[in-house]
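Lab intake sheet, docking and co-folding queue.

SAMPLE TYPE: protein with bound small molecule
LIGAND NAME: pyridoxal-5'-phosphate
LIGAND FORMAT: SMILES
REQUESTED OUTPUT: full 3D complex as structure tokens
PRIORITY: normal
SUBMITTED BY: R.K., bench team

The fields below were copied directly from the construct record.
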Amino acid sequence: MSNKTSKRSFVESRHVASMEVSSTLLVLMEAERLRAAGADLVDLGAGEPDFPTPPNVKLAGERAIEENFTRYTATGGTAQLKRAIIEMMERGFGTGYKPSELLVTAGGKQALFNAMAALLNPGDEVLIPAPYWVTFPEIAKFFRAVPIFIDTEQESFLLSAEMVRSSITPRTKLLILNSPNNPSGRIIPPTEFRRIVEIAAENEVMVISDECYLQFAYPPARPFTAGQLPPELRANVMVCGSFSKSYAMTGWRIGFALGREDWIQAMLKVQSHSTSNAASISQRAAEEAAKGQQESLKYMLEEYRKRRDWLIPALNRIPGIECQTPEGAFYAFPNVKRLLNAGVSDSAAFAKLLLDRALVVVTAGSAFGAEGYIRMSYANSLDAIQRGVSRIAEAVEKMNL
Ligand SMILES: Cc1ncc(COP(=O)(O)O)c(C=O)c1O
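RESULT FIELD (auto-filled):
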């Protein structure tokens, strides 16, 4: 046998090579390294609730195991969970979907992946308003589609129908909406949402509405789902939802897609040849989350709101930082351009500086297509947030603006 090593260590597809490792994960990895080395970090980088899964939901998972509910289920989800999701959306938003218009997935991410898998061909253009969640363009690229970004910075990160209209070309296949938005926390008002979908429909552009933060709208802001649109408009939209954030269930991996039957059927086909059904145990837990007491959800929302109401004014008191009040989700997205002018090259360098000098984990805005900003998650205790902000204030003071 030859002992010559191959020049190629493994076979890598060209389009996978063009994808980037999730930059939010890179921050977590670096933070993990420092934590393992014993550093006292304040983690404002993570995009997941700091709360445990509510007890009634955990119990439903335990029961599922005890009752040996541990086998394959229908690929698209159990009939009971599907009913529970439809009723949850009906109760909250009056949406009225049919079971055939619903697919249960392993997290919202798989709903997005399947929706794009079923729709996109190489060369199709996908409109993605910036700032955006890092995964949107990477999934589009996976299917050899072309992400086209719509910069919303000039409008305080609020997407308008006009911006969408002027970005559509004959090659545009898909528009991705994400309201409440990660990272900006902006919520598209219902009238504008409707106009955006109308313009998409007029141009035969399909829409994915990532509503994974749907429950996270802080009064007076109100949540709005594309499921509330009139049927002729809704026919163009795939709603992608998740239990991860609203029920503190990130590790259980349950999401869903709601939309027209033919699109759902195509997604089901994709799923049947990849992961099959979402975990049976998690489906039982999600059923309880959707049907059971909603007090935990209300409690968590109120806690996030209190943290936000402390965090935003505190950030605005730091010289060089400006932050608008997010209406939803659990992220602050402050503008730090004045600090960058004062010697740090870009938002990634600033995030690194905060990690090194203040031991605070934040995510660079460049990861979300918005240079000059950083994302801070307030899915952490108020105490941790307060420590983090005072460390940031100290680090900024030493920058000698
Ligand atoms: C905007 C957005 N969509 C979807 C997801 C996916 O969440 P999951 O796959 O856990 O449901 C996330 C997670 O961070 C997100 O921020």
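REVIEWER NOTE: The mean pLDDT is 94.
SIGN-OFF: pending second check by T.M.
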